[in-house]
Automatic annotation (TrEMBL):
This is EamA domain-containing protein. The chain crosses the membrane at residues 7-26, 41-58, 70-89, 95-116, 123-143, 149-166, 178-197, 209-227, 239-258, 264-283. It is a multi-pass membrane protein. One of its GO terms (cellular component) is membrane. The lineage of its organism: Bacteria, Pseudomonadati, Pseudomonadota, Betaproteobacteria, Neisseriales.
Length: 287
């Protein structure tokens, strides 16, 4: 039973570390072996598609759904977000790309207000304002270094992810099980990224590159399972707050393994965005 799980919210710490490792592997696969972001998205989602599909078959779960159009919309939005995120990883310090992707929670709140007419509590407004102040601080060194495009792409990844999460919530309200939502996302992402990679041209997979590609798929799948487990057995506010450890782990991996240079402005921006996200999580818990 969930309450007997001694690790509890600690599953999120593992998920955060593994998500950070996935990002580092994406950056290494792109920089060391020349793989494009479409190829990397394909390898990341194809692995999850095979694993989730195989588990569903073993459990004799039903793949049929009356909400295929909603799955398609979520899949396209999620694929776009993942492509933009992987592009940002290739062109920005890992921690900066990851932090920009975590603005998805801010965009989710904003999109919920704009399209679902949900009310925004005063504390959430403060969190949104703080979050966008953090974005400005974080992007100043990026813009100063002439990486305006990469910075805007990274921010757009957060927007696309926020839109995808909005659709995930709608699918949940329609009664779709979580495994089916993730499965159809992987299916759509694998097809779209595979088609784009075919149009651009595939890079050969060498014996040296294969561990990185498999590692991306394995870490993404393991992290997703740990995240799901954390929300099942942990305290929701604690889990949501611990998820931002991905930024911390990404900073450490970026500096120690990838040779990223992180200045005080980037660190300040990350801290402000993390604080804004935690405020948003607290509002959700208390509202």
């Amino acid at each position: 039973m969930p309450q007997q799980d001694k690790l509890g919210s600690g599953w999120m710490v593992i998920a955060a570390a593994v998500f950070a490792l996935m990002g580092a592997l994406v950056k290494k696969a792109g920089s060391d072996f020349g793989f494009g972001f479409n190829e990397l998205v394909f390898w990341r989602t194809a692995f999850g598609l095979v694993v989730l599909g195989g588990l569903a078959l073993l459990r004799r779960q039903d793949f049929r759904t009356p909400h295929w159009h909603a799955h398609l919309g979520r899949g396209v939005a999620g694929t776009l977000g993942l492509m933009l995120f992987f592009y940002a990883i290739a062109h920005l310090p890992l921690a900066t790309a990851v932090t920009l992707n975590y603005t998805s929670s801010l965009f989710l709140a904003l999109l919920s207000f704009l399209f679902l007419k949900e009310k925004i509590a005063p504390n959430m407004l403060a969190g949104l304002f703080l979050g966008f102040v953090g974005i400005v601080i974080l992007l100043r060194p990026t813009f100063a270094a002439g990486q305006e495009w990469a910075g805007l792409v990274g921010l757009s990844a957060g927007l696309a992810a926020g839109w995808a999460y909005l659709q995930v919530r709608e699918l949940s309200l329609l009664g779709e099980p979580g495994w089916r939502v993730v499965f159809y996302f992987c299916l759509v992402a694998t097809v779209l990224s595979g088609a784009l990679a075919t149009w651009e041209g595939w890079h050969p997979v060498s014996s040296d590159a294969l561990p990185y590609l498999l590692g991306i798929g394995i870490t993404a799948t393991v992290a997703q399972l740990c995240l799901t487990r954390a929300y099942q057995v942990g305290r929701k506010f604690t889990v949501a707050s611990l998820s931002y450890l991905t930024v911390v782990f990404s900073t450490l991996l970026g500096v120690w393994w990838l040779g990223d240079q992180i200045g005080w402005q980037e660190i300040a921006g990350m801290a402000v965005i993390i604080a804004a996200g935690i405020i948003g999580s607290l509002v959700k818990k208390t509202s």
